[in-house]
Amino acid sequence: MAETAIFAGGCFWCMVQPFEEQPGILNVVSGYTGGHVANPTYEQVCSHTTGHTEAVQITFDPSVISYDQLLDIYWQQTDPTDAMGQFQDRGDNYRPVIFVADDAQKQAAIASKAQLEASGRFKEPIVTKIEPAKPFYPAEEAHQEFYKHNPRRYAMEHAQRQEFINKNWQ
């Protein structure tokens, strides 16, 4: 039976590909969550008035890929020490958050975060939040699978993130 995970880690454009290419991933949707406005638009979220953050909703087969494995991938796509954005993307709509669906996800996220903190990999504190999942609203079609439809723009957006990943996770 399929499960879902929701992760926010900066621009959703850069969060899709690392998950989508994994065995056991059934679907990855870019969207918005964590706010107080139903069905927000990209423009509304960018205005910083809805409380939403850009996120990805991942549907996965837990018999093929575990939630813990998704957490490992998540940490390698974000700067967990930056509470107000990720890389070139600044603002509360780009904050890093693990949105948990139930107590099992919450406990796994807490343990994963503690393991990252104990690793000493980062000099600054890990500030990624772990929050209960809220309604998830898919983004407009133009934002879905952005990396496939806009490879040049994606490459530009992805470059800074990739540099960070190469420095901190290799």
Give a nutshell description of this structure.
The chain has 170 residues and is of the alpha+beta class. It is built from 6 helices and 8 strands. Strands 7-6-1-3-2-8 form a 6-stranded mixed beta sheet. Strands 4-5 form a two-stranded antiparallel sheet.
What this model shows, in words?
With 170 residues, the chain is an alpha+beta fold. Helix content is 35%, strand content 22%. It has one domain (3-169): Peptide methionine sulphoxide reductase MsrA (Peptide Methionine Sulfoxide Reductase, Chain A), CATH 3.30.1060.10. The chain has helices spanning 16-20, 42-46, 67-75, 103-119, 146-149, 151-169; strands at 3-8, 25-33, 53-60, 85-86, 89-90, 97-100, 129-132, 136-138. The chain is globular, with a radius of gyration of 15 Å. Helix 3 crosses helix 4.
